[in-house]
């Protein structure tokens, strides 16, 4: 395919109907966005800006009121294994061991036993959870659970990986380590990734492009290239280039955050 | 003693036993002290003697076996029908819309009130006894299972969808395993209620069973036997409840991990 664009959103909007005769909520203004293959895009915005709604529409878990999303030319009509997702809440299946959790999608696909466990074990290694394969999710810390959730999504080999504030519930130190881990996997494996966050530093550190969104109703405010070289080390966060980007995005987001805080 | 403050396992067991001791002491005081007429309430020793005679001379073990078989039989029949229906109702909203109003209504029909009708329909044999328990249990199980399945964590269902699960996969690999512990807990609860229905069924039109023995003893003013029968039911209930709880803990260890 000569066209290198993987995911194309055209005029995607979402209006939630009013509850009990109330006003409908416009969560997302018609939005256009194109994401290229193996791109790592962060979507940054204050809470309630529709960034999660946008991601859920791409995942097929929510339907746009207008517009279409296409993945490799195919219109998205519902959820599917080609779009893996990691949620902010811990969504490991509590009745399955870590190993069986990671194997969930492969089993659904009907991958042969031996090959399945090879893939599962290799991803368990990559997220550093060897030795915990037979634990239940409840026995693991939040960071380990999210690592499993990442392994579970990538083991399924999706065309695009969607992350909805995956490290939002983690403490600061764990969060930093998780960012490096995910970035390391991305640098090695090359995947198309959309990463939703409200953390400016996280958005810059992870991505090659940062898309900022306005307060409700959400729409794209700006798209910023992140020209920092790969592989990125956490020390890049102290570099002047990084600070400059942080300052620029902070300015942009600040106004929106104030808007969101006053109008809710 | 402070609110919600835990106590040691040892004192928990001791306190639990203490109340049984107090209860029997109160009973002994009332009967041996002559405060209650022997006609109306047998003393603990008479009760034990009567019980021994029942077991050794009057084939009460057979009655116990018959009653257990009725409870378990009716309960298993009800579970086989109700659990799949409840899962289908919880998972698929049109099925819920179709059945929920009727099941909610039927749930309040007292099983005991069906006894005369069921005698007309099914006679006084085993079928009638099983049907009483079936009617008493089936609607309760359907509704409770449907409620659990409806309340399945949405994010787990969504995660399964993004991992490529289809509708069938969602039911088989998310809704059922996620709710299996709740379903087991529901069954444990309803089994307890089934014991109430079986005795009612045996009080009328029966020729065997614990309930039959009780109603017979009433005619003979044998209160010792009646009390022994009641205690036997309590003990069996306690044992089955304990077995059910242990089984659930073993089956669903992931929940406690």
Automatic annotation (TrEMBL), chain A:
<feature type="domain" description="ABC transporter">
    <location>
        <begin position="7"/>
        <end position="240"/>
    </location>
</feature>
<comment type="similarity">
    <text>Belongs to the ABC transporter superfamily.</text>
</comment>
<keyword id="KW-0067">ATP-binding</keyword>
<dbReference type="InterPro" id="IPR003439">
    <property type="entry name" value="ABC_transporter-like_ATP-bd"/>
</dbReference>
<dbReference type="InterPro" id="IPR050166">
    <property type="entry name" value="ABC_transporter_ATP-bind"/>
</dbReference>
<keyword id="KW-0813">Transport</keyword>
<keyword id="KW-0547">Nucleotide-binding</keyword>
<dbReference type="GO" id="GO:0005524">
    <property type="term" value="F:ATP binding"/>
</dbReference>
<dbReference type="Pfam" id="PF00005">
    <property type="entry name" value="ABC_tran"/>
</dbReference>
<dbReference type="GO" id="GO:0016887">
    <property type="term" value="F:ATP hydrolysis activity"/>
</dbReference>
<dbReference type="InterPro" id="IPR027417">
    <property type="entry name" value="P-loop_NTPase"/>
</dbReference>
<protein>
    <submittedName>
        <fullName>Sulfonate ABC transporter ATP-binding protein</fullName>
    </submittedName>
</protein>
<dbReference type="InterPro" id="IPR003593">
    <property type="entry name" value="AAA+_ATPase"/>
</dbReference>
UniProtKB/TrEMBL annotation, chain B:
<feature type="transmembrane region" description="Helical">
    <location>
        <begin position="221"/>
        <end position="244"/>
    </location>
</feature>
<feature type="transmembrane region" description="Helical">
    <location>
        <begin position="66"/>
        <end position="92"/>
    </location>
</feature>
<dbReference type="GO" id="GO:0042918">
    <property type="term" value="P:alkanesulfonate transmembrane transport"/>
</dbReference>
<keyword id="KW-1003">Cell membrane</keyword>
<keyword id="KW-0472">Membrane</keyword>
<feature type="transmembrane region" description="Helical">
    <location>
        <begin position="194"/>
        <end position="215"/>
    </location>
</feature>
<dbReference type="InterPro" id="IPR035906">
    <property type="entry name" value="MetI-like_sf"/>
</dbReference>
<keyword id="KW-0813">Transport</keyword>
<feature type="transmembrane region" description="Helical">
    <location>
        <begin position="104"/>
        <end position="124"/>
    </location>
</feature>
<comment type="function">
    <text>Probably part of an ABC transporter complex. Probably responsible for the translocation of the substrate across the membrane.</text>
</comment>
<dbReference type="GO" id="GO:0005886">
    <property type="term" value="C:plasma membrane"/>
</dbReference>
<keyword id="KW-0812">Transmembrane</keyword>
<keyword id="KW-1133">Transmembrane helix</keyword>
<dbReference type="Pfam" id="PF00528">
    <property type="entry name" value="BPD_transp_1"/>
</dbReference>
<protein>
    <submittedName>
        <fullName>ABC transporter permease</fullName>
    </submittedName>
</protein>
<feature type="transmembrane region" description="Helical">
    <location>
        <begin position="130"/>
        <end position="149"/>
    </location>
</feature>
<feature type="domain" description="ABC transmembrane type-1">
    <location>
        <begin position="64"/>
        <end position="244"/>
    </location>
</feature>
<dbReference type="InterPro" id="IPR000515">
    <property type="entry name" value="MetI-like"/>
</dbReference>
<comment type="similarity">
    <text>Belongs to the binding-protein-dependent transport system permease family.</text>
</comment>
